[in-house]
Write a structure and sequence with these properties.
By secondary structure, this protein is an alpha/beta fold. The protein has three domains: 249 residues, Rossmann fold; 178 residues, Ribosomal Protein L25, Chain P; 115 residues, Ribosomal Protein L25, Chain P (Beta Barrel). 26% of the residues lie in helices and 22% in strands. The protein has 13 helices and 25 strands. The strands form six sheets. It has a seven-stranded mixed β-sheet, covered by helices on one side. The protein has a seven-stranded mixed β-sheet with strand order 19-16-17-18-12-15-20, with no helix packed on it. Helix 2 packs across helix 11, helix 7 packs across helix 8 and helix 11 crosses helix 12. The longest helix has 16 residues. It is elongated and about 100 Å long. It starts with 7 loop residues before the first helix and ends in an 8-residue tail after the last strand. The structure holds adenosine-5'-triphosphate and magnesium ion (2 copies). Adenosine-5'-triphosphate (ATP) binds next to helix 2 and strand 8. The site of adenosine-5'-triphosphate has 14 residues, from helix 2 and strand 8. Monomer. It is an enzyme of class 6 (ligase). It holds the Pfam family tRNA-synt_1c_C2.
Length: 558
Amino acid sequence: ESNKPVHFIRQIIAEDNQSGKFDGRVHTRFPPEPNGYLHIGHAKSIHLNYGMAVEHGGLFNMRFDDTNPSKEEQEYVDSILKDVKWVGADWGDRLYFASDYFEQMYAYAEQLIQKGKAYVCDLNAEQMREHRGTLTEPGRNSPFRDRSVEENLELFRRMRAGEFPDGSRTLRAKIDMASPNFNLRDPVLYRIIHAHHHRQGDKWCIYPMYDWAHGIEDSIERITHSLCTLEFENHRPLYDWFLDELGVYHPQQIEFSRLNLTYTVMSKRKLLELVQGGSVRGWDDPRMPTLSGLRRRGCTPEALRAFCEDVGVTKFDAIIDVGRLENAMRDDLNRRAPRRMAVLRPLKLIIENFPEGQVEMLDAVNNPEDPSLGSRQVPFSRELYIEQEDFMENPPKKFFRLAPGQEVRLRFAFFVKCTSVEKDAAGNITAVRCTYDPATRGGDAPDGRKVKATIHWVSAQHAVNAEVRLFDRLFNVAEPDRAPKDPKAAASFNYKQNINPNSLEILTTAKLEPALGSASEGERFQFERLGYFCVDSDARPGAPVFNRTVTLKDTWAK
Ligand code: ATP
Ligand code: MG
Ligand code: MG
């Protein structure tokens, strides 16, 4: 589409199509490791990879990079597929698992050995580190570097056959121990891990390293543009070296900046720590930046995609204000969410001159942004609930909501004027009393008198009781990962010290208008004046639970 910005990856693909580099094909992939739940950073990658394929009439592969048995589980595979689908990427029947290529990868490794470009090394991890050298000093060759092809082949086959214990040997590429790029200092291709693989079972006890595996996966699938994040930029020479040495089909790796968000940690390892440490209630806790958390919070895939489009694709690492994500949610929900009335912290309002037992049905518009959504009937009676903070007994000058002697408009209903308050023995306000003006039905006074505030309400006898969960940011500081400058403080720094202990507020006595009683899981609404809310998966028939997705205005903006 012509209104989409021309970012550098769009540009590269356009140039490749023009030059015929991949015969005009565009074929991308999303290659997560199934070692955790996806987060919003992954959504950026999904949106980019899938978007480029769709835009160019190309193909998109969903591929699990399941090459490390120790951290991978079927639970993660299932959750990832659900989340990718939710973001909106459709892989059709193009679902692949890197572990299905293990046999081919193994054959390629033997080819490298035959060429004299790979060797079995007996150094342990510690010794290998010693041989690696430093930024200023070249590394030293392994004493096993000059093994014959025959010996290497025999040892590698015995590695595969399970004759050696974990960590005792590796297969390494023979490149250059003096390369300024550490990744080229004889990188490891295979290590011995006697572990059960979630898909391959106990078939293998040698497992390929990422750099070796990834290019082969891309090559086998005939990917054209292999899009990855910037930290792989200095792995690209290795990606290219492997494919060149094998002489196989060679995709183009292109790096872009990863998504970082303020007030958020993004790495799967840290998210797992938050789950295991009980800082949140699970991977799908609405405070988490996971896709399952965002979904449960009430974020829509449309809002997520608009956000990804908004942050764009660059070569520079930046930290995006999480407020931009919240704005994307507001924009989307404003258009589609029906309006309802709900009172989070109820205070009884008694209308002295409204007849007891009488009920009036009032017309309430469902969404002023979308007339096609029509209106509904809301019951009005002598006893209502209003928000505690909409009343003050001794208000300051600029307080225009309800106060003794002060008149306000009840949304969709009447003007009411406060006459007195009721208190318990301890002096706490238990109810507010008022009179209403029947001539103001619908919200306007025939005599033209004005009020300065409109407040929301719910009829007490018709109200549905609900639990409502309000969320604040999980972290107190914009960059929770950043260590303090002071060296002493930095030495003991851990991002967990920045966790906001008050990020969850649970209100158990909220009152909803009756129409909300039948809402089902995932349904989204605007509660007038309070924000956007959705039904949580903890909701049960007769016991609704709502999450606040986002407030109506950015309360953090100064
Ligand atoms: P993490 O470091 O958060 O655990 P990862 O990079 O290990 O994530 P993978 O499962 O390997 O996660 O990633 C799958 C794809 O998603 C990769 O192509 C990776 O580059 C991309 N990706 C991961 N995190 C981000 C991010 N924050 N922004 C953009 N793309 C990302
Ligand atoms: Mg990874
Ligand atoms: Mg990672």
